[in-house]
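Protein of interest.
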Amino acid sequence: MRIEYTDAETPGVTDYHIYQVDYSTTAKVQLDVLVDGKKADYKLTRSTEPLMFMESIPWRNEAANLYKLRLDYVGDNSGVSRLVQATGLEFAGDYTLELKTSEKPYGLKLNYSRVNDKFEIIDFSQYSTELLGLIKNLDYVEITDGKSTHRLTAAEASKALGHDVKEFGTDPSKLEDYLKSLYEKYTND
């Protein structure tokens, strides 16, 4: 089996992960992992049982993907749309975007026409925080279903984080740390 990577857009060769490969054969399987055409060191764990990935770092890839989509201006409609989708907000239902760009404070409003769950029980703060941090001139995020509304400002997000939320767009490690903290929170609950 041969797996080849190129080191063009990732943080580094130590950040490649293959979590599981299922195969069935009586022949001996040789695994070759190459990065930019050169053999890479790797750790291989074989098991006939499903593996638990306690050491996995799924937030790192998510942080790298979100960081690539960061924007200077909330007025970039297609860029904002890609970023909102990358945060995972479509899980809540069907929405339209409304950009408030004519005067400060600059805002992003998501209007849900259909919600998959009760709007009131969904915690939108994670998604709002990510958007506020990754859109440089975004001052607030408002999410509504027409009856209930979630609103978060950059100042409120910064206060909750204990640092300027805008650092997500300038320091990818801040975004990674934030996503790691969420991952740990949800896996420990």
In short: The radius of gyration is 20 Å. Residues 72 and 136 are 5 Å apart (CA to CA).
